[in-house]
Amino acid sequence: MSHDSWIPPPSHPPRTAAPPTSTRPHRPSRSCTHTLAHERPQFHSPFPRPSVERTRPRDERTRASVSHAFSRATNKMATEALVTVPSDVAKPETASKRDDDATEKKWRETAEIFEYGSAANPDMRPIPVLVHPADLHECGETRVIPFDINDFLDITESCTSPNLMASFVRIVKGESIETSAKATSQAFYVIRGSGESESEHGKISWSTGDMFVLPVTKGGVTHACIDAEAKGGAALYWVHDEPLMRYLGVSPADEKKFEPTLYRREQMLERVEEIKHDSGASNNRCGVLLGNSACSQTKTLTHVLWSLLNSIPAKTVQRPHRHNSVALDLAVAAKPGVYTLMGKEIDSQGFIIDPIRCDWIEGGVFVTPPGWWHSHHNESDDVAWVLPMQDAGLYTHQRTLDIRFVDDELELHAAGRIRGSAFAVTNKQYIELAEFGGSVPAPKSDNTIKRVLSVECMTSQPGESKRAKATQVGASICSQPEPEA
């Protein structure tokens, strides 16, 4: 483009050329901005564009920024242009686009959408009432004898309940065996004999009636039988939570949730005797929960496992109770005439409707399904002992254990009330716990409560409020009368 063809911007009025006052050639502005139309540039005002142009979407505009630079030496112009193409111009399909479509198709193949009413309570294989008999560990070679019922539960991996695996370990006198599990918790109860167990956590000795629990263990645990006492070998009751790990698709972390812990038989029985002579103890239920200092809130064996050493005096019946966890019950000591009745429903007198009877065989294990009412009966002349192992540590942490005793439920029903969950801890027959029904969080250092909550505050005084209402941060909590119907 020569200087002779340069035209002033149209926004300036035309004027008559004046005679040159010098021989220096006319020099235009060093830079200007133009809009390309088709292939031939058109020049416009350097001032802002009209507002109508501004209202057009950015992706519909065709723009070019042209920069002119003139060399003083050659008086020639160099031009650079950056053009944005409209978004509606068709683009060829790229490999990335095809990959995205294939990924979406693959992800959608596994999507399922159900009607809520028919799928909210899915039809699943029920947990059966089954027995793992004692004669399995009373004879034969050194081996692990799993109580595997995964086929009943339609679960691929070996398990005794969805979260736990229970097994007998028979160890012939003078022999040893190694056990291993990808678990966060392992419990070993000595059914019979004496010996020692060694792992990365150390070596301990054991004898009949002892129990020890191990946290996550990367290697195996070697058990050796020193004395059999009877049946030619020692026997251990081994329970761990590897099925839970497999269901979650995880491996236990290296960090231990608790330290290896040992419960000696003498220690447990001494505590039972103390409770037995306590004037406040129940006359037909005397047991001790086995806890761990690392589980001070749940008061359980580990963060997953729960265990109780429970005794049933001669000629007594322990009334029905129920809980949401599965119980894997070991009959520690039982004469003929000791049994458990189980069923899904109770009548108005608190008796189980159409119960299943499961007789206790000393050294054997039986399964108590979750949510079933069950009562323990001892028609013999001797005290009977049972050691249930449950995944109730996990349930207690989740506040979903919901253990209930039949007489408490009958009292509520007689008052015309049906509760959805335990609003006050009622497992007084196991351990004395503070009621949390009317409690509130402890104040912070600045004397304010950092949350909004509503808590049940059941009172026994007629006419008093049965609900404590909590308001916003820093406000006081006070009882208010219930609104009249």
Automatic annotation (TrEMBL):
SUPFAM superfamilies for the chain: RmlC-like cupins (SSF51182)
InterPro entries, per database record: GDO-like, RmlC-like_jellyroll, RmlC_Cupin_sf
Compositional bias of kind Pro residues: 7-17
Superkingdom of source: Eukaryota
Feature: compositional bias, Basic and acidic residues: 51-63
CDD domains: cupin_GDO-like_N
MF terms in GO: dioxygenase activity
Region of interest: Disordered: 1-70, 460-485
Protein's recorded name: RmlC-like cupin domain-containing protein
